[in-house]
Amino acid sequence: MSVRELVLSYARGRWHARGGEVDLVHRELRGLEGLIEAHMTSEAAPVEVRLQFDMSALPRWLHQYHGHYCNYTLRVPPRGMRA
Amino acid sequence: MTTNRRWHSGMFGTEDWWSVWIGLAIFAASLASLAGVDLVGWMARPRPWEWTNLSSEFAWSKLFAPASAGYASWHPLVSWAATYFVFTALFATGARFLRLDVRRFVIGFTVLFVVTWAAWVVGNELHLTIVDAAVDGRNRYAEAQLSWGLQLGEGAPYLLALIAGLVLGNFAKGFAATRLAEAARPEWYIKTAIVFLGVNLGAQTIEASGFAVDLVLTGAAATFVAYLFFWPIVYAVARKWFGFKRDVAAVVASGISVCGASAAIATAGAIRAKPVIPVTVSMVVVIFAMLELIVLPGLYTAFLPDQPIVNGAALGMTVKTDGADAAAGALLDELMIARHLQLTGEQWQTGWILSAALLTKIWIDVFIGIWAFVLAIVWIRNVEKRADAVQVSPMEIWFRFPKFVFGYFVAWGVYFLLATQSEALAATLDTGTAVVAGPMRTMLFMLTFVAMGAMTNFAKLKGMGKIALLYGLALVVVIAPIAYAVAYLFHRGITPPLAP
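ok -> structure tokens follow
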């Protein structure tokens, strides 16, 4: 199992995932996760992708109400087990 | 980039944590009174004044003066300047860590501070405040020989601050948006004031421990009602009657029924909704919270003047942002005290109705992290059906926990432990903490009123049709009546102690 960390954000109606050489964009989060999964095709072992939302993607006036949006882990199965 | 990666992330990067640091720093400074050193008595405090008296012989000392006798030799303007510089420096330091534009913040803060003080000083004019009633055989209204009076008590400065803020937010929109936006952070100011209020709760716990237990019980009931009663009703109505999609309905339900903008953001994050949804819902929540702040304290005071603690607790369940709830609680506190004095000649102690409003709300706030975590699990398993691919850590509960609550309970615990050692120690302690819990706390409440008004633009309700309609419907038909019934069940007949 390998672990990757990506920063998730949302701007102009699109979700973004960035980190290292990864820079992916999609209109839907589910679609973005599909792109992340496809990007990991070279990995033979399962990959744990830790996604951390960048709060600066939300308007500043909103931060005073809550300082966190979401973090979650996307488990990408090894190459041979992907649909 | 602002992400929460570790448990200590954001300790110097969120308003929530900075309310703890500023609140506890000033509270700690007030404890120097135990060593005979007064580090907070320079704080300026407005004084009751009457305009014919002032115009016949003007003196700054008639308008305001240093809070402690140890600083009585200071000119009032020096005391006011010290107040401005200390609070500006503290919040500007926080603003720097929050990566705000410090120059713009200081300019905005200065405008809000001046407006706050203008409202506070004008609001202490006797024609606005003093109540026509005899207390301990003295009728100060009659003694002042006033020909008329609004008799609003200490609620008058709050009302003026609210009006001033709303004028800025709605009639000077450009100025508010460009010059004040960086500093118009009512949640930051109110959370700092709530840390100060820990002292009040400590004093109230010493005076009536049963009251504190009562508030804890109501808080538990309020939490149950908000999460397990209001939420499913509003969610069902949003889905079936208004046709909202699942994610929108969930975010709207949390915003309307749990704890406002905070709950909307937490829920949206938990179900990984597009951020545009909580942004829209939060705009509606903020405007409705302002409407509740304008309407509910006056309504409860006029129609239910004999149920002070019921009214306070009902506010805590009904008003959905911390700033609006605490502000509405403070306004209700002052208006009800003045009204009761008018009707009976008895004067209740200040702060008890506010505590009822606040503690009920804090209970609801505390559980938002757990609620969002449960919702995330349910969403992944039952809605998205992706339990095999997506995992959420329990650390999310911590990231969503409202940190200012720590400050509130630390101030409460420290005050309670020290004040219960001996009466002499309690008296010495109070020389410092009375300034923190008194004028400093009041000033931050006033600042909250102005800042909240300045960022509330009612015109933004245009285009929010369905969400605004659902909010209004849920508030009037579901939330306000049930909240009042629950508060009545627990607190009917309970009144604050009489002022000494």
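Chain A touches chain B at residues 7, 10, 13, 15, 29-30, 33, 52-76 (CB under 8 Å).
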